[in-house]
Amino acid sequence: MSRNHAFIEIWGTLPEVFPNLAESLSKALISCQSLVFTHGIELNLNLMKFHSKTLPNGLQIIAEINPDAQSAAVGFLVKTGARDEQIADSGVSHFLEHMAFKGDSQYSAEDVNRIFDEVGASYNASTSEELTFYYAAILPEYLDRTFDLLARLMRPSLREDDFDMEKQVILEEIGMYEDLPGFAVYDQSMSSHFSGHPLGQSILGSSESITNLTVEQMRNYHEQRYGAANLILAATGNLDWTQFTSLVDQYCRDWQPGTPGRTVVEAKPETQVQWIPKPGMNQEHVMQMSPAPPADSSLRFAAEIISTIVGDESSGRLYWDLVETGLAETAELSYNDYDGSGAWAIYLCCEPDQTRSNLDRILQTITDINEHGPTPDELEQARNKVASRIVLSSERPMGRLVSLGGNWLYRGEYRSVKDDLKDIQDLTLDDIRKLLNQYPIGQVTTVGLGPVEN
C-alpha cells in the first residue's frame, strides 16, 4: 500500500514495480558497465536545461527543457492541503480542487473538459495533506491553449450553484472511501499517529464538515492559499523558455501574492493501539506507523532504499516472509515524507486468525533490520530497483514534472536525473545504519480494522 503524499485522485501516482529488464538497464547506467548505453544516456541528459524565474507577485516558474522530447507537461503546485485547514473547513482543499474545474467567468465546466479534449491533453488534479497539484501533458504545439486553461483553473468563479451541486459529489466520495478498508485504515492511522498535529487532518474532511461548509468559506480559503506567492508553476519537455515565461507573465502577472507558507512543527507521536471492529469484513487490515525523515532530510534516499528492502510489494523482506508464503495478502512498508515530519507506514492485510502471528513476524523482521541492517546484496538490489524507477519515470516529461516540482517545493532546489542516480549509487551500509539509528522502523501507532475485536 505504497503512498505518494496520499493523492486522492491519483492514489499511487507513477508505477513502482518494473520488469527485470529495466533493473538491468538501470544497473548498466549506474555502474557504467555498458559504455555505449551510458554514453547515449549522457548525451540525452546533457540536452536538458533548467530555468527558473520569480514574478514580482511571488509566482515561481521552473522548467526543465528537453528539445528531444515529443511532448510537454505543465502544472501548478499549490502549497496547500489538509494540514493548512481549520476544523471548521476540513476538506476544503480537496473540495476546491473539484470546484476549479467548474470554470471561470468565460468558461463553463463543459468548456473546460471540451478544450482539454480538443488538444488531446492528459490532465488531472490531486490533493494531499500539504499539496494541491493541477497538471496536463500535451503535444508541444498546444502548450499555449493548455496553459490558458490551467491558469483559469487557478482563478475559478466558485459559483454557488456549482458549489451546492459538487458538495453532494464530495459527500458521496467520502462515503465511498469510508467503505474501502485500505483507505479507511490509512486515514485513521494518520489521524491517530499525528493526533494534535496538522498532518492528522483528513484530506476528504468529514460528512459533517463538508455539509456545514459554505461557499464564502471556500472563497476566503482560495483568496488566502491560492495567491501567486504560494504557487509553483513547473514545466518539462519540449518548450521554449522565453515564449513560455512571456505567456505566464501575460496570464499571471496581475495575481495577488496571497498568504504564502505554513507553520511547520515536527510531529511527536506517542505509542498507541486502536482496534476498530468491523464484523462483516473477511480480512483484517492493519497499519503501523513510526517517525521517519522529513522531506528535506539528507536521509531521504536511504529511507527510500530501506523501504524497498523491507517493504517492496513484490520483492521486499515482508513480501517473501508473509505474502509469498501465503500468510498474508499484502505486507508492505512505505516511506512517507512531509514538510517537517516523516513516517514509516507498515500495511498488513490478512485472514483475521493470522493477524497476531503475522504482526509478530513483522516485528521480527523490523527488529532484525534495525539491529543488523541490510546485506550488501540487498543494498545493491534496492539501489538498482530505485534507480530503475527514477530512470523509467523520467522518460516522459510528465514523470519529470512530478520530480521537478516536488524538489523545488520541499527543498528549493533543482535535481537532475543524474543527481538522483549519483546519490542512490553513493549510498553505503553506513548511511543505512545512520538512518536506522536515528529513525528505527517501529510500531509506535497501530490501527486495526476488521473482524478482530482486540
Automatic annotation (TrEMBL):
The main enzyme category here is: hydrolase
Q: Which family does it belong to?
A: Belongs to the peptidase M16 family.
| Protein known as | Protease 3
Q: What GO terms describe the biological role, i.e. biological process, of this protein? A: proteolysis
E.C. number(s) listed in UniProt: 3.4.24.55
Under the heading InterPro entries, the entry gives: Metalloenz_LuxS/M16, MPP/UQCRC_Complex, Pept_M16_N, Peptidase_M16_C
User: What is a single Pfam family found in this protein's UniProt entry?
Assistant: Peptidase_M16_C
Which keywords does the record carry? Answer: Hydrolase, Protease
